[in-house]
Each structure stands twice: as structure tokens, then as C-alpha cells.
Amino acid sequence: MTRRQYWTGIIATVLALVIFVVPFVFIAFTAVKDKAQASHLDFTWPLQFLFWQNLVDVVSTRNYMLLLAYFNSSIITVGAVAMLILFGAMVGYVLQRRQSRWNKVIFGCVLAGLIIPPAVVPTIWVMQGLGLFKTIWGMVFIQVAYGLAFSVLLYRSFIATIPRDLDEAARIDGARPLQIFLRVILPLLKPVTVTLIVVQSIAIFNDFTNPLYYLPGKENVTVQLTLFNFQSQFSTQFNLLFMNILLVTIPPLIVFIFFNRQIVAGMTAGAVKG
Amino acid sequence: MAEVVLKGIRKSFGAVDVIKGIDLTIRDGEFCVFVGPSGCGKSTLLRIIAGLETATGGTLHIDGREVSKAEPSERGITMVFQSYALYPHLTVRQNIGFGLSLAKVPKDEIARIVTATAATLQLEKLLDRKPKELSGGQRQRVAIGRSIVRNPKVFLFDEPLSNLDASLRSQMRIEITELHAKLATTMIYVTHDQVEAMTMADKIVVLNGGTIEQVGSPMELYNAPATPFVAGFIGSPKMNLYEGKLAQEMGCQTYGIRPEHVLLGAEGRWQGRVKHVEHLGADAIVHLDVEGLGSLVARTTGDTGLRPGGDVWASPQPGKEFRY
Amino acid sequence: MQRSPYPYWFVLPAAVVFVTLFLVPTVASLWFSLTRWDLYTASFIGLDNFRQFFSEQNLTLGLGNTVIYAVLTSATKTVCGLLLAVLLTSGIWGQSFLRTVVFFPVLVSTIGVGITFTVLMHPTKGLFNVGLAAIGLHGPGWLTDASLALYSVALVDLWKGVGLATLIYIAGLAAISPDYYEAARIDGATRVQQFWRVTVPLVQPATVTVITLSLIGGLRSFDLIWAMTKGGPGFSSDVLASVIYKQYQAGFYGLSTAGNVILFALIATIILPLTWWFNRKEVDL
User: Fold this and answer.
1) Distance from C-alpha of B113 to C-alpha of B129, rounded to nearest angstrom
2) Is residue A30 within 8 Å of A242, Cβ to Cβ?
């Protein structure tokens, strides 16, 4: 490392701490302050560390709404990601392996899914017709519909690297189509699958807009909406509001610590190949 | 144990005819090699027999049963791929037993068959490894093991040795030949390498441009090639072939003489100048420039004293000339 | 008869979900945008919704804001992303820590970020203005000044999104062979010349991706704006997506859907020519 690289690094680190780290430290500080100090909104060292008390207060607010929200968000995330993995891999597999004029149609749908903004009110209309509006399952299917394009693209480009000989060997071994897919192809997709699980979980867990439209109702609250709801409720209790922000930030942070590599792979693989 | 009969097999991809009508009978227990240059349709033909491609026309019978439309797994065949196509996520044991587990064979029965097969192929110590931990030759044996447990009527091999280095290739040639001797099962083997064809086959099928050029035993093809193509393809070094005016002067369309049938001496039919000598040890390959003929290759004994630039006379060995 | 080992029914589960919850509403929106609609009965009113959209000032303002916001965030993310990526691949001290720090905001809840920055941008108590006051400057009303609110939100968007652009550029830079830089150095190119003559042209695929992704994201963006200003003060920071939501809340479903159609048309008229132009340029390379 040259002197130049050393000093540039030092300066860049100081700037990054100010620009990117201070806001998070601010969140953490405010989250543990008492009500009076938090209302000053300033970036100061907490006079009191009320971590536990603030945590309990936030969690118990509005009849333990935050726990319900975590429960709902978890179900939506797990359900939607499971379907995105399975359905996305199946489409990507057929799209990559079988060449026909249908491919153009499927590919067109994938691009449409990436570009077109969802038509909100007509979607609510369709969901009402199917009895899916304001239901957790409806939300799961919405996340699947909106996330499919990305899954399909990622799987398709990875499946292209799996030799077709393997499918044929399995066929000769007597595997039926579903068996080829489940017992030979799907296990080989593990690296992308991990990437997709991580990236999509974070996206769905952090989603605010779609639950806002399609999942109104107190019993259906999701994590991001609690934050939004508490913004008015806690207008005088910034310590609790920021404790809530802290709680919402922790799951992605944990995922990021463990799956840094997969996130980077997913974000760039999906993107660079376009 | 089965006879394979192809009648009028055709295959086209869009407007391109890849296989242009093939009639062929491969007898029970025969080791039959499809050989030809790349793009001649040999692999496509093998894949049609396997059921991985559907023929555009014609019929295919295996063991007396019409299987043109049957699933690959219902044809009583098995196939060893050029890439071996071992399942990367499964161990050797699971790879060999994969087909049996699909067929819902009881677990202890699978274990017994896999162990027995591994023993015949000397794979016992490798059973719990993954394919990527194996050498090329070991992978080849696992691929063969996976085929054997299916107890097939016909073995299909698609250029199985082309990913191996030269010494391993000749060893695997012997192993496959021994396997054939032991199992006495019909085997169909595709290669572009005429040496493999000559050393392994009971019957060679030479393919070119989607049609059969000639069918015969290795020595039939060597001694009596039916067409100039076969004459040029079988034998190494390649036969000297002459067309056009030169051939007409010798009373034919194409005139051919194998390098090993060109006699060099102080006198003869053609006078030539030595361009280059390749010393192989026991033999030497002499490249000549012959006036009125062009280049001529001759095979002679290794202790030849010929040097580049020297003059020499060449003559065809009587009775070994080919005229088409 | 032999069947394909890749049967089309594999596509079916995905297709059912995608068609019912995405394609059908998208197609239906074309019709409902031409109606007065209360979710149960729709009466055809021609292009009235669109006329209203383009005649009411607060709605047209949203359209203009959408374009400003998208172009601004996309351009700044592209430039900052490239510069950061070059910096973070130059082997400086603390490189991997810096990559992590720059990327992490991408993964954090947009609402959480929005609320945090709303507090930090508080006109009197917020850290922004307190910090500026410390060096003797009088900070603006970041979110309370109608002429500034949209740009303040765009600044936060840049803060949150630049990590993704940087990440894509880092991947793009890794794909450039070091040979080009060595050849350029032998030819006597300075660092700045290397950047303009080698890096910028050869990293173009990543640039295309960053611009396209951030433009689409910027045109559709809603949650950050909603968390920070709710389109205010007044309508000064409204964008199409927030207008769509407001009209939906007010029960003007036909009008809201017309907003959706306009947003779709806007994205199409910006993205499609851009993609075409990028593709053509790539052929030239």
C-alpha cells in the first residue's frame, strides 16, 4: 500500500463515518434515551441507557402490535420467498431448456414485470373478486407476482451453466420431468437459491407500499407499517420511535452479516447481465 | 441381449437434413462403432437410438420391439456421455444407485447391487466421494457403473474417451473392450477417432453427411474401402488420393494408394524429391514431392537413410491400388 | 408419444399468479382509467380523467416532479456510484470496511431511513442545521421549504441507493482486464486520462444497468417521499406515485388508475428509447 492509498483511505473512512455511520449511531442513541432528552432531537450522548425499558414499551404499545407485525411479516416473507424459489426455478428451467415461440411470450412477461408499475386499484379490484384483499395469503401472492421476474432471470442465467447432459442422463435413468427437476436440477441451484432467499427476504420484509395498499386493517399490520403508524403516535416519544426503527433495522443487519457474499452476488448478477 | 434395427431413419432440424435415411442392423452382442468427421450425424443417430431425439421418419426396433416413440428409459438402453454427466451433488454410491432409487427398488437391494458393481469396476474405495473429487478415468468408470446397474440390453457410448489424456485413453479402450467381452451386450459407440474404431469394433459404420458410406469389419474397411471417403478416413497416415486429370490417366475418377503400400527405391514408377521425413522410431513417414502427381506420403522402415532434398523413386505395391 | 422433459405445466403455477395479480390488473387499468369508478360500478367517461390530470396544477406538478426526481437521483447515483467504485477498487486503506458501510443503507427499511432523516433535517433542532450553525452557516428548511423539499428527499434517496450503484460498478470494473490500464500507462496516459479513455468506455454495461435500474426506481418511487414529506409542503414534493395513492385514498379510483396509466406511459417513453439507444451503442463498440 502506497502512502497515497493509505491517506486516501483514512480520509475516505472519516467521511464515510460522518456520512453513512452517524445516522445509524443517531438511531441507536435516540433509541436508548429517555423521553425528555430524545425530544431534543440532537446528536448527543444518552444521559440514561434505557434500552430494555424502551424496548418493552415499544413492544407492548397498542396491545403488542409489534409482535403481531413481526409475526405477519414473517409469514408473508417465508411464504412468498418459498414460492418465488420454486416457481421461479421452474419457469427459469423451462425457459432456458426449451426453445420455442412461447419463450418470447414468457420473456416479454418477465420484462414487463420488471418495468411496468403495478396498477394498484385494479389489483385491489381483482383481489376483492377472489377474496384475497386484506388477507395474508393475498399479500403473499402479490409479493410472488411482483418478485417473479427477478427470480426467473437469475435462475435462467444460472441454469444455462448446468450441462444438459445431466437432464438426459436422468431421463435415461428413468426420471420423469418433475423428478429430473426436483432431484437433479433444484439441488444444483443451491448457490442462486441462497442468494435469492436473502435478497428477496430483505426486499419483502422491508416492503411498505404493497402492504399499505393491499393489506389494510389493524390485525394485518406488518413491520414497516407499524413504523409508519407509530410516527404519529410517538410524535412526542422519539425514543420509542427510534427504538422501533432500531428493531426494524436489526433483521437485515443480521442477514447482511451472515450472507454478505450472497447479497453482493445476487445484486450484481441480476443487474450486470440485465 | 438385443438386436438393434434401424429402417429409413431420417432427422431434420428445420430445413437442415442431418440424417438422410439410414438402414442398419446391429446384431445381438455386437460392438458397433459409428465413426465419421464432426457434423456427419453420428451423435444425432446415437441420440435417436437413445430416444433423446425423435427421428423425423423411419422406425427403430430394439430386441424386436418397435421403440421409435418410447421414452429413453423404456428402451432398455443406457448411455455413457462424453462429459460423463455424473450428478455433481450426489456421491458415487448415489450416482450409481440413482436409477434404481427412481425405480423404487428397496434400499438394501440397491446397496447390494451398488456394492457388487463397484467391486467389478474397482470403485469400492471411492463410493462416498463426490464426482469432482475423482480423476477422469475414475469418473469414466462411475459412468459405466451407473450404466451397468440398469442391466441394459444395449450400451450407448457418446465419444466417452475424448476428455481423457492419451495414455489413459488407450487404457480405457482396453477396459471397455474387456467389459464388452464379459457382458457380451450389444454396444454402440460413437467416435471421430478412427483408431478407436479400428481397435475396438466388431463392426464399423462410417457416416458422412448424414448417410452411411460403408459398413463392415475393421479389416474389410481397411482392405476394401467402398468409397474414396472411407479410403481416406480409415488408416493412418491417410491414404494418398488423386482426382481429376491425374486419376483419369490412371483410368479412374479417384486413384488411391496407402502410404504403407508405397515402395521407395532406386527405381520405380514416380520420381520424387524428399520434402520432409518424420521419424517415428520403428517407422518413418516420408513426404515426397512427385513431378506430375504432387505430394505423396510413404511409410518406410525407421532406418531409412533418406534426407530432405534427396531424390527417390516410388512405386505402388501391386494389388494395393484403389481405383474409383 | 414421447413427451418433452421440459413440460409447459412447470410454468403454470407462476403464470397463474402473475397473470391474475399482475397482467389482468395492468390490462384492466386501461379500461378503468376511462371510467368513474367506485370498485363496484364503472361508468365510461372517456378521457375525462386524463383531462383532469393535465388541467389541475397540483397533478401536473406531480408529473414534472416525478421526472425531476428520477433524473436527478439516477444521474447522481450514476456519477457518485462510479467515483466511489473507482475509489473502492483502488486498494486504499479500509477498502472492505468502506464497501460495507456504503452498501448497508441499501438493505435498511426505507421508512426507517425516511423518519430518521426527517428528524436529522429538522429546521432548528436537526443535526444538519445544527452542524451548519457550528461552522457559522444558516441552514435551510430542508423539508419545510417548498422549493427545496423534493431535492432534500432526492438527497436521502442518493444516500440510501448509491451503495447499489457502487456495487454494480465494482462488479463492472472487475470485468475490465488490467491489460488495458497497463497498455494505457505504456502509452503515457495520466490517471485522469485512464479514467476517461479506459474506465468510462469499458464500464459501459454497468452504466447502462445503473441508469436503467435507478431511473425505473426513481420514476416509481413512493415510500421515501411518503415517509418524509407526504408530498408536502402543499403539493410541492408530490410525485405520480404519491398522487396515485392520494387519489386512491380520496376514493377517486378512476382518476387514481389514470395516474397509473400515465406513470406506465412515462416509464415506457423514457426507458424504451433509452434501452434502444444503449443497445445500438453497444453494437458500435
Assistant:
1) 18
2) yes
Residue A268, pLDDT > 80, answer no
User: Which grid cell is C201?
Assistant: 468506455
Percentage of residues in chain C with pLDDT exceeding 90?
50
pLDDT in tens, B118-146: 998 889 999 999 999 998 889 999 999 99
Locate B167 and state its grid cell: 495414455
- The answer, for C2 touching chain B at a CB cutoff of 8 Å, is yes
| pLDDT tens readout for residues C98-154 | 998 998 899 899 999 999 999 999 888 888 888 888 888 888 889 888 899 999 999
Given an 8 Å threshold on Cβ–Cβ distance, is A170 in contact with B103?
no
Distance CA A196, CA A263 (A): 8
Supply B94's cell numbers.
448415489
Q: What is the pLDDT of residues A38-74, one digit of tens each?
A: 888 888 898 888 888 888 888 888 888 889 999 999 9
Q: State the maximum Cα–Cα separation within chain A, in Å, rounded to a whole number.
A: 74
Which chain C residues touch A148 with a CB distance below 8 Å? 14, 17-18
Q: CB contact, 8 Å: B54 with chain C?
A: yes
Q: What is the DSSP string of B1-36?
A: ---EEEEEEEEEETTEEEEEEEEEEE-TT-EEEEE-
Q: Where are the domains of chain A?
A: 65-267
Does B141 contact chain A (CB < 8 Å)?
Answer: no
How many helices and strands in chain A, by DSSP H and E?
14, 0
The reply to whether B85 touches chain A by the CB within 8 Å rule is yes
The residue in chain C having the minimum alpha-carbon distance to the alpha carbon of residue A140 is: C17
CA distance A138 to A134: 7
Rounded Cα–Cα distance for residues B287 and B297 (Å):
5
Q: Which residues of A touch C265 (CB under 8 A)?
A: none
The domain made up of A65-267 has a fold known as MetI-like fold (1.10.3720)
Preferred mutation among A173, A180, A192 to probe B, highest tally of B CBs within 10 A: A173
Q: How many Å apart are CA C119 and CA A106, to the nearest integer?
A: 45
> Angle at the Cα of C41 (from C37 to C47), degrees rounded to 5?
40
Contact B259, B252 (CB under 8 A): no
CB pairs under 8 A between A and B: 57
Domains and CATH numbers, chain C: 48-284 (1.10.3720.10)
CA distance linking residue A203 with residue A216, whole number of Å: 19
Closest residue in A to C215 (Cα) is A115
Backbone φ and ψ for B255, nearest 5 degrees, come out as -115, 135
CA distance C278 to chain B (A): 33
ipTM, two decimals: 0.88
A157/A150 Cα distance (integer angstroms): 11
User: Residue C188's CB: how many other CB atoms inside 10 A?
Assistant: 7
The tens digit of pLDDT for each residue in A235-246 reads 678 888 999 999
Helix (H/G/I), strand (E/B), else coil: B253: coil
Beta-carbon separation of A171 and B83 below 8 A = no
What is d(CA C254, CA C35) in angstroms, rounded to the nearest whole number?
6
CB contact under 8 A, A114 and C17: no
User: Which chains sit next to C, with 3 or more Cβ pairs under 8 A?
Assistant: A, B
- Distance between CA atoms of residues C24 and C37, nearest Å: 17
Choose the closest CB to C5 out of A41, A171, A213: A171
Residues of chain B with Cβ-Cβ distance to A188 below 8 Å are 88-89
CB pairs under 8 A between A and C: 268
